[in-house]
Amino acid sequence: MNRREKLLMIAIGSAIGLAVVYGLVNSLLLKPRAALHRSIAERGKELTELQGKAGREIRFREQHEDFLKRTYLGGYDPDGKATQEAAQRRLKALALAAGLEEKTLDIRPQSIGREGIKHGFLHVGLTATVNGSLQAVTDFLYLLRAEPVPHRIESLRLRPDLAAGQVEVWLRYTTLAMLPPSGDPPSAATRPTTQPRPVPPLDDPARRAFDAIASRDLFRPFVARPAPTPPPTPVGRNDPPRHQPPPSTDQYYRIVGLSTWSGDAADAVIVVTDSRTRHTAEHLVGDKLGDGTIACVDYRPLPTPGDPEILSPSRAILKIGERYYAVELGQTLAEKRVLTESDLPDTLRDGVGAADSAETSPAQAG
């Protein structure tokens, strides 16, 4: 081996040695260092996001903490049955303060909704039926409206007795009892008061807004004009009299309530008023109504027929024969409109699609 070959072997060995050394340094030092830097950067980004989220939560709590505490202290003690009894006594006190007689009051407890416990509150429901003069009933509605306790009034139904000058009101009253804020000591100062609250004065200026109810007679139900009598059809001397179908009564039935207590449309209650007898009846999904059957209650907000700028919150869907019809809340059955398959809610649309597939499958198989 001459000198030149020796130098070439030395150069090749040196290059191989340097490559091996670089590989060892890269795998033992450089790669872990780069991975550590990436991990530090990712953890720093996560920490920044957590700090921002914590800051937003702290600011939200600071902005609403006083309001939540006032609402909690101004409400009922969150003890299911005790809250219900306290709400019953409160509604009775408001009714008596409005001038209604105790014998005309019927206040009954409903179920206690505990699904909101994980969010810090309880739903407590009552139903109330009161009967009295228009002035007393209006005062009672004002006192309910002025209640500082978190509450909601649902399914308000009115039935006037024009001959006796009385008005009967049925309503569902829901109140919200908040659980105590975490960290508060269990002392009397941090629990809602159990003392009777004062009744708002009836001479408050805010009461004047309710005067329109009496002055405009808003409680009087709408009575549609009877349909004009068609002229008699001339009949020949030898022709038998023609059989006339009975006149439709759909114009007298008006949907005045589409409420659900559980939040499920399948449990909805359809409240219908007969303008001839002023009688109010409740129906469930599957009951017969008019010429059809109640298929479901649709709670999708959709444009009102004839006035698309206003959204209609709910409607009853009837099935008459093979077609579906929609009656908006506040409409009579005579104002029903035909629905296409694209207008149907998903529950009915799936059923129609399955039925259509079942009908067309034999033809396709043939």
Please describe the structure with a list of short key phrases separated by commas or semicolons.
alpha+beta; Alpha-Beta Plaits; 3 domains; five-stranded antiparallel sheet
Question: What's this, in brief?
Answer:
The chain is an alpha+beta fold. The chain is built from 5 helices and 14 strands.
Structure report:
This protein is an alpha+beta fold and 366 residues long. The chain folds into three domains: 36 residues; 112 residues, Ribosomal protein S6/Translation elongation factor EF1B (Alpha-Beta Plaits, 2-Layer Sandwich), CATH 3.30.70.60; 111 residues, no CATH class. Helix content is 35%, strand content 26%. Strands 8-9-12-13-14 form a five-stranded antiparallel beta sheet, with no helix packed on it. The longest helix has 72 residues. It is elongated and about 135 Å long.
